[in-house]
Specification:
- Chain A: It is a multi-pass membrane protein.
- The complex is a heterodimer of chains A (about 500) and B (about 575).
- Chain A is globular.
- With about 500 residues, chain A is mainly α.
- Chain A has 21 helices and no strands.
- By secondary structure, chain B is mainly alpha-helical.
- Chain B contains 24 helices and no strands.
- The radius of gyration of chain B is 25 Å and the shape is globular.
- The chains are: A mainly alpha (about 500), B mainly alpha (about 575).
- Chains A and B meet through helix 1, helix 6 and helix 19 of A and helix 3, helix 4, helix 7 and helix 21 of B.
Chain lengths: ~500, ~575
């Protein structure tokens, strides 16, 4: 079969040119965070990495990411040694900016490779669809906004995730899929959210016999267990020898943070807060009591330490329980039907559950849902129907990350470009489903996408004209509530598709 | 990146081996008939072959080229934090300052030492409009006298925005319409036309100068393209109006005046004599010019009526004038306004060439020191050389006023002006590049030969502007945009496929490959030298001079190629001569 055009490499070249042009764009404090980590890993001995706190941006990623920073810092030494000094806070010479931005582009090459593996692993009629999905991930506005403007290294980590997911497609490489995912966990622990799906899938498809769940494949268990232990040993071993594990854990899991992140991630708690805010106005009329202490935090608008005025407060335990429940439901099906498509669906639903119900969720975590979902969004039109509102909501919810006027046209035009191009392409590529469609759901998704236009107009333009600088929380609240409806809607839609296909 | 909106239908049919005709009924073009796209830009449009309509592809192209423009604009502009005079950015901002604060009669007189207005009136009106809008956002950006050299980051965003908006209002619609008309005229499929549209809009030279260096060339170029486009549609009066607008925005549009005149004149006499059309065109042109300067006339007249004489001491030019005119009469201030405008717009008193520019005179100056010759002699030499280079192509256009010859005639004439005329700036290379790049939309526009030559001219053009750009440290966007364009069109240094001989290498093809190859090699070596070596202390300009020499030679080749193609396509030579002529010209 001949090559499908455009190839991933061609897209990567053009995208890289665009990303290099974005070098002088706005960069968030995450840029300084990563510079600081370069400095820490380069200039300090291993056992001081997780204790160093000159900068407020202490190292709070697992060791493999620290090793990754150490490798990069070896090159950074040649570019501008000044960026590697721990006391050189907020240092951003043009060499530093060019270098750090460039490392994001270079490490993202792994994503091109992983996506190519994904396309190559797809055969027959759906190959063109796979190519389109792969390009949509490569050109994702999420990665562009978060990695290349805001500044992070998600591209390389999602590359490892996709690579691992592709390896799970063949029986012979299942082991490597699990090990690669273990390595990914040692790089960024946010992927723990997806771990239940991996656990169930590997348990059923690799550790238990395909014929009977009561026949355990001991050799496979030893291989997988030993491999994972070895990977965790390499990552955490050196620190364990020095007895630093409690310190690392306190860095990785800071439970002192609030329910919602500074900007509301579009999840259930955003809707919950929105309802609470509406109830403040309605409460006196319907005879509910308003907690006066909470009102203060409410009028501040943004929520760091959310206290609810009318509705009951949420504890981390509640979040945790809800997340587990909604992760467990799709996993039951995965256990009974351990195919690759179900596995990807389960990974996506684990991402959904943790994003929607998790404690202190970042809006950036939406990629945990969008990227695995993209791999199966073109399976048939029903999948695409659930994907559509997610694609709109997930990317629109990232807009508040960039608030500077110079980046405004880039984030909006790029996202609109991506949505038009890929929703149009997907629409042509997704085959019809063998099962009946949900009439209502399609209508919902069309209506939902249409509403985004006035919403964007209001948030970016009209609000400023009408209210000026006051009520600044309103656009944020609207954006996240709107996006939350989309994410929840697409979640419900996908749950139905997942359980009926 | 643009336009892969794959259709599920057509490729499936192909896979089954039926290979039916394209469902839109276009004749298959060279590019879409092959099994694989011959250059990356075609690959991006590959899934849209035959199926996607132009209205689906167009918005995507416009968004992508807009994104690249805006991202390029994040880099520094000319004269950023470079006191005392700053640069083109400050000039444009300053014009917004004076036009919004001073009465119209002062615009061409106010403090000429600080970026005095020296562009024609339409630029002044455009500055006034931008200044008014900008003052609504933040009046301090354009505060009279106090805002000089201001480098507020939000102002930069506003100024970048004015360039993009002006371009999307004028240049881009003009190019989109031109490409549609020109490709239909040349029998090119709409799929190929979309590719050439993307290639034209991604042209690196215009992005580098307008969106990074900072200027509004695309407004003028847009009016010129609109004028050409009207010629294609047979709307000759509109073509005259648009051309007056182009001239009224930037005097540089004079480079195109000859072919515009030649074509309009030729179309009045061919295929049959049409005197009425000639009169109407002349009348419309005159009226357009009148409207253009009318605000100045009214302004001057009103001041005369109110008895205001607020102008600074008359300039030397007026002393001669005053002897012949009644300085008290109502028309005197009007004449004074117009004379001053012409004097500002056409600075006859400057030298043969400013700075270093890759044209004939500057290159010749490296070999023979001609700058010490008397100015009058140089002016005369320059005039003769320019006329010699531009008269032949325009004669062809007068006798063969064919629409498909327009871009070639415009390009040839502009090359002639650029190479031989007086007072050329390195940025003027945009003028010949614009119509030459439009050739991509014509018949065989995406063939290897045309891509090779259009690409060669564009990449060489960007390269000659490098000394201008690296002053404000814009090496990165220069490299990115130029290499990206070369990559998209499959040109050196990213690919040499346009020079592949496909088994039957004619002498012409081999010669083109050798000549272009040596130029690309020279450019690459020059970049290596410039990057790694300081020029010797007694010749500080060595790199720039080398750049100028190579550039002028390459541009001369572009002139020859455009002219030869024009001669061949016009069928003006007897068939017997044709074979011999083509060889001698293109080698």
């Amino acid at each position: 079969m001949g090559e499908i055009y455009p190839t991933l490499a061609q897209c990567a070249v053009v995208a890289a040119a665009f990303k290099i042009l974005l070098f002088p764009a706005y960069k968030s404090t995450d840029f300084e965070v990563h510079r600081n980590w370069l400095a820490i890993t380069n200039s300090l001995p291993l056992w001081e990495w997780y204790y160093e706190k000159t900068s407020e941006w202490t190292l709070d990623y697992p060791p493999f990411f620290a090793y990754f920073e150490w490798i990069i810092s070896q090159v950074a030494k040649l570019v501008d040694p000044a960026m590697l000094r721990v006391y050189n806070l907020e240092y951003d010479s043009w060499q530093t900016v060019y270098f750090q931005r460039f490392t994001v582009i270079i490490t993202e090459l792994l994503l091109v490779y992983a996506l190519q593996l994904f396309v190559d692993s797809t055969h027959g009629a759906s190959k063109r669809a796979a190519q389109a999905a792969a390009i949509s991930i490569l050109l994702s506005p999420g990665l562009l906004i978060i990695d290349h403007i805001h500044f992070q290294y998600n591209g390389v980590m999602y590359a490892i995730l996709i690579w691992s997911l592709v390896l799970a497609r063949k029986k012979s490489t299942l082991l490597w899929s699990g090990l690669l995912f273990a390595a990914l966990l040692c790089m960024k622990h946010i992927y723990l959210y997806l771990a239940p799906a991996y656990f169930v899938f590997l348990l059923r498809a690799y550790c238990l016999s395909p014929k009977s769940i009561f026949r355990i494949q001991f050799v496979n268990c030893v291989k997988l267990g030993g491999g994972i232990a070895a990977i965790f040993g390499v990552a955490f071993g050196p620190f364990a020898l020095k007895g630093q594990i409690p310190q690392i854990l306190s860095r990785l899991f800071p439970f002192s943070r609030g329910l919602c992140h500074a900007y509301w991630a579009p999840n259930v708690w955003a809707i919950y807060s929105f309802v609470d805010r509406v109830l403040i106005v309605l409460a006196p009329r319907i005879g509910l009591s308003v907690k006066s202490g909470a009102l203060q935090s409410v009028t501040r608008g943004l929520v760091g330490d959310t206290a609810f005025a009318v509705l009951p407060d949420i504890t981390p335990q509640v979040c945790f329980a809800l997340t587990l429940i909604f992760q467990a439901i799709p996993l039951l099906r995965l256990f009974s039907q351990p195919t690759w498509d179900t596995f990807i669906g389960a990974v996506t639903l684990c991402g959904y559950a943790s994003f929607l119900f998790g404690w202190h969720v970042h809006e950036k975590a939406i990629l945990l849902v969008i990227i695995p979902f993209s791999l199966i969004a073109l399976k048939d039109r029903r999948y695409l129907g659930a994907f559509r509102p997610l694609a709109v909501a997930g990317h629109v919810s990232l807009f508040p990350l960039l608030f500077t006027p110079a980046e405004f046209p880039i984030k909006t035009v790029y996202t609109i470009f991506w949505l038009i191009l890929f929703l149009m392409a997907f629409d042509r590529l997704a085959p019809a489903s063998s099962r009946p469609r949900f009439f209502l759901f399609d209508r919902f998704s069309t209506l939902y996408i249409t509403v985004s236009i006035p919403l964007l107009l209001y948030c970016s333009l009209l609000h400023g004209i009408i209210f000026g600088k006051s009520y600044e929380f309103l656009p944020l609240m609207f954006t996240s509530s709107y996006s939350a409806i989309g994410v929840v809607g697409s979640w419900v839609g996908f749950l139905v598709v997942y359980f009926t296909s | 990146m643009a336009g892969h909106s794959p259709s599920p239908h057509k490729p499936r049919r192909k896979a089954k081996g039926t290979g039916g005709p394209s469902n839109l009924g276009h004749s298959t073009s060279v590019e879409s008939s092959g099994r694989a796209p011959s250059f990356p830009l075609a690959a991006f449009f590959w899934p849209a072959r035959g199926s996607a309509s132009q209205w689906e592809i167009l918005p995507i192209i416009l968004m992508v080229v807009g994104l690249f423009r805006w991202a390029a604009g994040l880099w520094g502009y000319s004269g950023f934090e470079k006191p005392p005079m700053f640069g083109d950015y400050e000039a444009q901002r300053h014009w917004m300052e004076i036009t919004t604060h001073l009465p119209i009669t002062q615009w061409y007189f106010h403090d000429l030492q600080w970026w005095g207005l020296d562009y024609p009136p339409l630029t002044a009106y455009h500055s006034w409009l931008c200044g008014k809008i900008g003052s609504l956002i933040d009046p301090s950006w354009f505060a009279l006298h106090k805002s000089r050299g201001i480098h507020d980051p939000t102002l930069k965003i506003f100024m970048r925005g004015t360039v993009i908006v002006s371009e999307y209002l004028i240049y881009i619609p003009a190019v989109v319409i031109f490409v549609r008309r020109f490709s239909r005229l040349s029998g090119v499929t709409s799929w190929s036309a979309s590719i050439s549209l993307a290639a034209i809009l991604m042209q690196p030279a215009t992005i580098l100068i307008d969106h990074i260096h900072f200027q509004y060339n695309t407004v003028m170029l847009g009016f010129v393209v609109a004028s050409m486009s009207s010629m294609l549609a047979g709307r000759y009066l509109w073509s005259a109006v648009f051309f007056v607008a182009a001239l009224g925005f930037k005097q540089m549009a004079l480079y195109y005046a000859f072919p515009v005149f030649a074509f309009l004149l030729g179309s009045c006499f061919s295929p049959r004599v049409n005197v009425l059309r000639f009169i109407r065109i002349a009348l419309v042109t005159a009226i357009s010019f009148g409207i253009l300067v009318l605000p100045f006339v009214i302004g001057a007249y009103n001041e005369w009526k109110q008895g205001i004489r607020s102008k600074p001491a008359p300039l030397p030019l007026f002393q001669g004038l005053a002897a012949h005119l009644d300085t008290k009469a109502f028309y005197y201030p009007i004449v004074e306004q117009l004379v001053q405008m012409v004097h500002r717009v056409f600075p006859f008193a400057r030298g043969l060439f400013e700075d270093k520019v890759a044209n004939f005179w500057c290159a010749l100056n490296v070999v023979v020191k001609i700058k010490h010759l008397p100015a009058e002699l140089l002016q005369r030499l320059s005039l003769i050389a320019t006329l010699a280079s531009i008269i032949p192509p325009n004669l062809i256009l007068i006798f063969r006023p064919r629409k498909e010859l327009l871009p070639l005639a415009f390009a040839t004439t502009a090359w002639g002006f650029f190479l031989f005329s007086y007072q050329v700036h390195e940025k003027s290379v945009l003028l010949p590049l614009a119509p030459m790049t439009l050739l991509l939309a014509g018949s065989q526009g995406l063939s290897k030969e045309i891509r090779a030559w259009v690409g060669f001219a564009n990449i060489l053009g960007c390269w000659t502007m490098f000394p201008l750009l690296q002053r404000v440290d814009l090496r990165v966007p220069y490299a990115v945009l130029t290499l990206l364009w070369a990559y998209l069109l499959g040109l050196p240094p990213t690919s040499f496929s346009v020079y592949s001989l496909d088994g039957h290498g004619s002498l012409k093809k081999i010669a083109t490959a050798l000549i272009h190859g040596s130029f690309y090699l020279a450019m690459a070596m020059w970049h290596m030298l410039e990057l790694n070596l300081q020029p010797p202390p007694d010749k500080p300009d060595l790199w720039v001079v080398a750049n100028v020499g190579v550039g002028a030679a390459g541009f001369a080749l572009c002139y020859v190629w455009c002219f030869a193609r024009l001669v061949l396509q016009s069928d003006i030579l007897p068939k017997a001569l044709l074979g011999k002529k083509s060889k001698t010209k293109t080698n």
